[in-house]
Amino acid sequence: MADLTTIFDNPLYTVQPKSNATGNNNIDKEAFLKLLTAQLKYQDPLNPLDNVEFMGQLTMFSALEQVMNINKTLEDLSTYQIYSNALMVGSTIIGKTVTTTDGREYVVKGIAIEEGKLKINIGDDYISMNQIKEIKA
Q: What is the role of the protein in this entry (predicted)?
């Protein structure tokens, strides 16, 4: 027969000094799966987890994974939409003369996206969209 004191050496059954938590409060699917695995590993064999409760936790894990996948898809879609719109708007001004907020005029040579922002190529340099005051045909 196993020594009963070894059960109480488990971190789940010991009292830890209270400390301020650091990090974020978000739980990802990896952390959820680790918690579920630890719960199954250390459950009392004489009083196992109820089937309904266990299925509820598996359903929560599945729902969490699906929500995370949907979130990632929406983020990707949003990013692609922003880039697509920026490139479409930017491409309409190639070859046109733009006047900047400081009064200088440049002919647009091309466009680029740097750090998520549309930049206008004016030859040897780039300007941002918020520096454009006027676009001439």
A: Required for flagellar hook formation. May act as a scaffolding protein.
Q: Give residue 68's identity as a one-letter amino acid code.
A: M
DSSP E strands: which ranges in the chain?
Answer: 97-100, 105-107, 110-114, 117-121, 126-128, 132-136
* Close Cβ partners of 93 (under 8 Å, ≥ 6 residues apart): 108, 111, 120, 135
H/E element, 87: helix 51-91
Please determine, for residue 82, whether its predicted confidence score (pLDDT) is greater than 90. Answer: no
Q: Say which range, 14-18, 27-31, 117-121, has the weakest mean pLDDT.
A: 14-18
Domain ranges of the chain: 67-137
Q: Determine how many CB atoms are found less than 10 A away from the CB of residue 108.
A: 21
Topology (CATH) of 67-137: SH3 type barrels. (2.30.30)
Interval 12-27: pLDDT, tens? 444 445 555 555 556 6
More confident residue, 116 or 133: 133
Rounded to an integer, what is the distance from CA 45 to the centroid of its chain?
Answer: 39
**Whole-prediction pTM:** 0.45
